[in-house]
Amino acid sequence: MKLVALVVVLAGCAKPSGGAPSAGLVPVEPELPLLAAVGPSPRVYVRLSLAHPVVRPLLDEIAVTFRELRGARTLGSCGIVLTDLDEVRLAIGEPLRIAAEIDGAITLREVECVFGESGVRRLADEGVIVRDRPGGIAIERAADHHHADAARPIGRELGARCVAASCAVARLATPERPLWLALALDETLRAQLSGADLGDGAARVAAAFARLAATWPALHSFTVREERGTLAVEVGGELDLRVARQLRDQLVESYRLPSSSMVPTLRQGDRVLVARGPLRRALVPGDVVAYRRDGAAFVKRYLAGPGHKITEDERGLAIDGAALATEVVDAAFGFRDRDGHAERDVAGEVLREHLGARSYLTLRTGPPVQPGTWVVPEGERFLVGDNRNNSSDSRDGAAITDAAITGMVVATWYATRADGLPDWNRIGLPVE
């Protein structure tokens, strides 16, 4: 996104000046015009102090990269004094509407110098407007200033959760089932994840982290705890990126869905979080798992373990002779399948399938492709895709061992709609 790149580059126009900002409560009302500018449903609000001693070195690296890309045209040569920029505020709404404000000694003239008048015009042609404002500049894409009343309640909530001089807050998932992610950077880096859908997940994560930290000295600067259903994380001192990578390898990993084999639960291109190691509880039938086979990563649903007999015919799936109960949720479901080289429209029935105490959505686009019977060998798991007529899985005879399973899929952290815009109603949702 060119606009995001523009905001990041301009935010990078700063050098360390020393002195950490105070972390008092931030007035909410002055930010409402910015939040209202992104429509009636603001989703993300970011407030970044460019004077923060942790932020400045990172932004300096961005500024150096920009200088290398632009050659002789540096920020300084365009009259932008890095230490004269103070703060960036950014709001994102749905559909993709972005508004940002940069405070400090910067005007549209300096921006035109950096990017060229033709570059600014090209941005304007794409709906991105850069303009002067008292105390700095404003940047907007698809701005709409007629939703202040509708945006006010959500804007107040976003602003009230962003209380540090450098902070970010996002409202994920659906309005009926919100999941809030808040980050704050003052003397330490703090994160909070809250929402009714967390269930006992916060306590489980905190307990798993405590077990890991007991044997891993590198984690002693981290504090992870559960507070009244909220997962709270605090990082004291400098965060070593090597520790962050080790945390990823030990606790959580991100996968991108390469195919449509898990429609309607997950869609091609979705990014999901996979719980690993101590975060991964014992698997039960119905869980969605990630595994590796022949060097590639896959995501499928765990159906049955060793010794069970699975049968599939025109009536559906059965385990040990007991058919899995289903009911039709959507008799006319359709989506654009981008698997392979050619795109095609796919239509079928969405069914809710019941497996023990679990239930989840599946898609049937016709009779079974390969009806049959399978007995799960010792040490293996029987995995199937929710898109039952377009999934390569255990029904093809592929052996999926316990050792091949790398983790359990727990949430969708990024998803897009058919038009490529963020699908906010699926971002942040736990995976059924």
- Tell me the structural class: alpha+beta
Percent range of helical residues: 10-25%
Low-confidence stretches: 1-30
Spatial separation of the terminal alpha carbons? 31 Å
Overall mean confidence score, pLDDT: 82
Widest sheet: strand ordering: 4-5-3-2-1-6-7-8-10-9
Shape: globular
Rg, rounded, reads 25 Å
Number of domains: 3
Number of strands: 23
Strand content: 35-45%
**Main sheet makeup:** 10 strands, antiparallel
Number of H- or I-type helical stretches: 8
Would you mind describing this structure in some detail?
A hairpin with a 3-residue loop joins strand 7 and strand 8 (189-194). It is built from eight helices and 23 strands. Helix 1 (2-11) crosses helix 3 (55-70) and helix 4 (108-115) crosses helix 5. It starts with a helix and ends in an 18-residue tail after the last strand. The longest helix has 16 residues, at 55-70. A ten-stranded antiparallel β-sheet has the order 4-5-3-2-1-6-7-8-10-9, sandwiched between helices. A six-stranded antiparallel β-sheet has the order 11-12-23-13-14-22. The protein has helices spanning 2-11, 32-36, 55-70, 108-115, 117-125, 148-161, 201-213, 241-250, and strands at 42-49, 85-93, 97-104, 128-133, 136-141, 166-172, 179-185, 189-194, 222-227, 230-235, 252-256, 271-275, 288-293, 296-304, 309-313, 316-319, 322-323, 326-337, 344-355, 358-364, 372-375, 382-384, 405-414. It has three domains: 2-187, no CATH class; 189-250, no CATH class; 254-414, Umud Fragment, subunit A (Ribbon), CATH 2.10.109.10. The relative contact order is 0.11. The chain is α+β, with helices and mostly antiparallel strands and 432 residues long.
